[in-house]
Amino acid sequence: MKMKKGMTAGAVLLASAALLAACGSKSSSSSDSKSDTWTRMVGDVIGTMDPSTNTDVIGGQQLVDTMEGLYRYNGSKLEPGLAKSVVEPTNNGKTYTFHLRKSTWSNGKAVTAKDFVYGWQRTVDPKTKSQYAYLFSGVKNADAIMAGKAKPSTLGVKAVDDYTLQVSLEKALPYFNTMMVNPVFFPQSKATVDKYGKKYGSQSKYILTNGPYTLKSWNGTGNTWTESKNNKFWDAKDVKLKNIKTQVVKDPSTANNLYKSGKLDDAVLSGEQAAVAKTNKDYVGLKESATFYMELNEKKVPAFKNQKIRQAISMAINRPQYIKNVLKDGSISAKTLTPQGLFTDPANAKTDFAKDAAKGEAGTYTDYNLAKAKTLFAQGMKEAGVSSVSVAMMCDDTDASKNTAEYLQNALEKLDGLKVSINSVPFKTRLANAASKNFDMVISGWSADFPDAISFLDLFTTGNSYNDGSWSNAQYDALIAKSKGADSTKPEARYNDLKQAEQILMKDQGVVPIYQRVSAHLTNPALKGVTYSPAGMYNYIGATLKR
Predict the structure, then answer these.
(1) How far apart, in whole angstroms, are the C-alpha atoms of residue 491 and residue 453?
(2) Is 246 in contact with 232 (CB distance < 8 Å)?
(3) Residue 439 to residue 79: CA distance in whole angstroms
């Protein structure tokens, strides 16, 4: 998901992993915040609360808080949500039958299997323009529907009865169950979507939810909003925390001050604030399944089609120095797109996919080597038939993102003939510009949607809605397709397909990975029991707040 997705230092889709944050610290008990309210911070405003069209982690977290799908994560454990159990497929892995528990929408009306059918059909319908529709690939007829060759009603999902949902796949997908935690697979009320039309998902009064919390006081553009306990939620007895207040904070210095004054319970820091925070007893370093990277627009800047130029750009970046001097939060230099700790070899769980794929030549193109970078760049420029290239680097308008852009600008302009300017824009504007390919270079990022390398590698197949730089490699596409097709039920063969694909992506530098985020938090220890999923989302069910 684009940081799904907001990041502190990388701009991104992960949206500033500042996804927690809020009211508290020792002094919070004497502040004007209520003892039953947790106040967290995010890096920007909510883009949308439409499950079909949300693309970033800010909206994603609000949807996880206020909606309930088939499953949800309790830490790293996948647990039943509206499904009564975690389903084992039949028909050689191609049929999933979900028996749903009885539950209601926040307006008291029943949530049924038909709401899942409608939500899924709406998402794959090309008219909805869902960037996440590609996740349905493998569900019967999904690809044909997305290509405009079949009607949404032919999607392989049906309501056998009000509380039985059946899904038919064209091929076995070993990660299918884990995908169900993504908001794009949540149920949707057709009556609500029809009632609000284009306004659906744009403000708290234009949505209908069924999760542990209901969203209040969100006007679509404001910098604060509140979630309150939903007493109609099927598992309301386990929702102990009554309110979650969210505040947009773009500056880490401001976040640090708000935490110290008891106005934030969780502050996400970077730069000097992160470095100093490591000595604080409230410091927590959260290793995320999130990679920040740079995309180069091959359609807008023809020179970026040259492999040597892309390799040179990557090798001109001194990642350890950048992390030490700019981020200062303990993040990890990225040698692959897939983050460490997300995926392991099925034949040996001790073998980390990211570290394994970085072995050999493919891993050398993320090593800092300015001399080689200059040589490659000169060769690439000659092959491209140009003597100079002037480009704009797009980033978010936060201080942390600007600091990242300035470091990269300085590093890249050491390549003779490359001139880089900085274009800092609001988070929503960056997302929109990237999606419409209106950029030269963009600092972006991705947070795992589920614990599998395909969650990252699928993004850069030819034509994928998130492949904003338009990189394309036929061998790469074939390996990804093979991992989903002929080798999908052969764990070791599938692992090797994905490993080879990662190595092709890294040798070609189709995307330039920069770092895997370890977010630096100052967190009020008064909150107990909140868990963090492989998809980078917090689960507040069961959490208690004792100030």
Answers:
(1) 13
(2) no
(3) 41
Cβ pair 285, 520 in contact under 8 A:
yes
Both structure tokens of 429: 């504007």
Alpha helices (H) in 332-397, listed in sequence order: 353-357, 370-384
DSSP state of 326: I
Say whether 162 sits in a helix, a strand or coil. coil
Q: Round to whole Å and give the CA distance between 357 and 461.
A: 18
d(CA 168, CA 140): 6
Q: How confident is the model over 149-197, as pLDDT tens digits? A: 999 999 999 999 999 999 999 989 999 999 999 999 999 999 999 999 9
pTM for this entry: 0.82
Integer CA distances (angstroms), 184 to 68, 346, 474, in order: 11, 28, 28
Q: Which residues contact 217 (CB under 8 A, 6 or more apart)?
A: 204, 224, 225, 226
What phi and psi values does residue 330 have, to the nearest 5 degrees?
Answer: 85, 15
Helix-, strand-, coil-residue percentages of the chain, each rounded to 5: 35, 25, 45
Long-range CB contact pairs, 491-496, < 8 A, 24+: 491/174, 491/346, 491/347, 492/345, 492/346, 492/347, 494/174, 494/346, 495/345, 495/346, 495/347, 495/353
DSSP one-letter string for 292-310: EEEEE-TTT-GGGG-HHHH
φ, ψ (nearest 5 deg) of residue 348: -155, 95
Quick check: 255 and 272 in contact, CB under 8 A?
A: no
Q: What whole-number distance in Å separates Cα of residue 366 and Cα of residue 316?
A: 9
Is a pLDDT exceeding 50 seen at residue 115?
Answer: yes
Question: Can you tell me the distance from the alpha carbon of 54 to that of 48, in angstroms, rounded to the nearest whole number?
Answer: 6
Mean pLDDT across the chain: 92
Q: Which helix (H) or strand (E) holds 390?
A: strand 389-396
Q: Please write the tens of the pLDDT for every residue from 62-99.
A: 999 999 999 999 998 999 999 999 999 999 999 999 99
Is residue 20 within 8 A of residue 266, CB to CB? The reply is yes
* CB atoms near residue 284 (< 10 Å): 14
Nearest to 54 by CA among 231, 170, 186: 186
Q: Which residues contact 195 (CB under 8 A, 6 or more apart)?
A: none
CB 545 within 8 A of CB 241: yes
Question: Under 8 Å CB-to-CB from 229, ≥6 apart: which residues?
Answer: 212, 213, 214, 236, 239, 241, 242, 243
| Element holding 161 (H helix, E strand) | strand 157-161
Distance CA 130, CA 144 (A): 15
**Cβ–Cβ < 8 Å for 415, 372:** no
Q: Which ranges of 343-369 would DSSP assign to H, the alpha helix? A: 353-357
At residue 270 the predicted structure's pLDDT band, cuts being 50, 70 and 90, is: confident
Q: Between 399-412 and 252-260, two packed helices, what is the crossing angle to 10 degrees?
A: 150
Which ranges of 12-151 does DSSP label H, i.e. alpha helix? 57-66, 113-124, 142-146
